[in-house]
Write the structure tokens for this entry.
Amino acid sequence: MWLPIAGLIVGIILGFLVSVEIPLGVVKYTAIAILAAIDTILGGLRAQLEERFDLSIFITGFFANTVLAALLTAIGDLLGVDIYLGAVIAFSIRIFGNVGFIRRDLLERYWRGARQREAAGQVTR
């Protein structure tokens, strides 16, 4: 579980240290790629907490989601319709769902550990 978190921290640090100018024409694609990456990382964390993480599913999910979102964005650009907003909404819903699950799971683990420590302390008295 520490590897995705370490990768996220390294990515955030690199993002602050390296100045990258994004051309205006690819801003939508960049936003979609960032959302796909965040969704994949949080999905991987959730799968790890549920003890069903699979690296091949993690990697293929990242590329499949990114390609599909980029395809929707490109089709939307061709048609003059902001179809990429569908991908943004879908990724946002998934991100919030995964964050909610991770938060609940970590809190349950913390409280369960606290109760066990408390019970162990009561037994030794």
Q: What stands out?
A: DSSP finds four helices and no strands in the chain. Residues 24 and 30 are 10 Å apart (CA to CA). Residues 84-124 form the longest helix (41 residues). The two ends are 36 Å apart (CA to CA).
